[in-house]
Structure formats: C-alpha cells, structure tokens
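User: Okay, second chain of the day. Same drill as before: sequence in, structure tokens out.
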Amino acid sequence: MSSLSPLQTQIIVALFFALALSYIPVIGKFLKCFNTLIHESAHATCSLFFAGEVLSIDLFHTGAGLATTKASNWFTKFFVSLAGYIGSSMFAILCAYLIFYNHAVYILFIFFSLSLLNLIFWVRNVYGIVWLSVVSIIIGLLFYKGSEAYQNYAAILIGAVVFVDAWVSSLIILIISIKDAKNAGDAKNLHQLTYLPSFIWGLFFFAQATIAALWSVQLFVPSLWLIVK
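Assistant: Same drill. Structure tokens below.
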C-alpha cells in the first residue's frame, strides 16, 4: 500500500474542510460566494464578449448571486444564460490543473483580480461590496505577510470550495428545475429562449458539471488508486 503524497493529503483535507465548512451557517454562505463570484462573472464576461452590457452584479448573504445584463439579440441571451454554470465548471478544472502543477497561488491572484474588478465596475449592493472588500484584504495580507506555504494552503482550500460548490450548485438547479421550474434561474431563462423544458437544461448543467468534476479528479486518481492496491 502506497502512502499519500503531501499534495494528495492537502487536497483530501481541503475537500473535507470545504464540505464541512459549507454546513456552518455564516462561514458556509461566505465561502459559497467564491463560486458565485465565478458564476456571475462568467455571465458578465460572456455578455461583454457578445457586445452586450453588464448593468450590475449582486452577491447576497445567502451565497446566491445575480448578474443583470442587457442583450439586444437572442444569440447573446442564450450564451449568457449558459455561461454561469459552464464557467464555474471550467474554473473548477482550471483550479485542479493549477494545484496539480504546483501553481495553486494563481487561484489567489485570480480571485484578488476578480474582486477588484467587480468592486470597481459591477457590484453595488452592500453585502457584495463587503464580501469583495474582505476577500481582497485577506488575499492582499496573504501576499504581503503570509508565507508561501500559507498562500498555497489558502489557494487549495478556495479551489476545493469552488470545486465542491460548482458540482453541488448544478445538482441543486437540477432539483429545482424538476420541482419548481418557475424558480430555476438559468434553466428557466433557457426554457423561455428555447422552449425546451427547464429540467432538460437542469440536467444539462448537472451533466456538464459532473463531467468537469470527473475530469478534474482524474488528474489525481491514477496515483490515488495505488493506495488501495
């Protein structure tokens, strides 16, 4: 039986922490906003890419978010509605690759940059401003005062939080799209645009998130399987 490498140990601990912390009322909602920031920023970025407008982004104390965009055509609305969950899944894969290739600290750079960008241009609600400010300050202090080891631990934990929530949020939207289609968010928007039932889009979001999660995990699985041989 092979022993765990330091990186494997850090990842397993970070995933357990991410799962455990998500059930703590205040901390769990605070951490959920990391994935929410990626999700809403993906909507915004897609809108700008297709020459649309970003009116505002809200981050809420519940961990939910809202990107208000303006588009002049069906094509833009369609891809903006797709972008949130797909963007979260793609970012989860990016986090896995950065961690696997010992570049986890770039996760902190990305969130620091995204926080400042959203503060300057898009986020105007009180909780969103407070959350982004706190995250920017914490990451700034990690860069200024923290050791490389602490920066790495923090980056891996944030990556694990995004990884877990990207998949869990896709499962939740699938369940909502089946039980309460009128409140199914992006799945409802896509139903209105395509006339396909909301649960079809909920299933699509869940499927792509699951594929992304498996793709991320396979980076570490070959060596992890040695443990049980």
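The first helix runs from residue 6 to 21.

User: Thanks, on to the next one.
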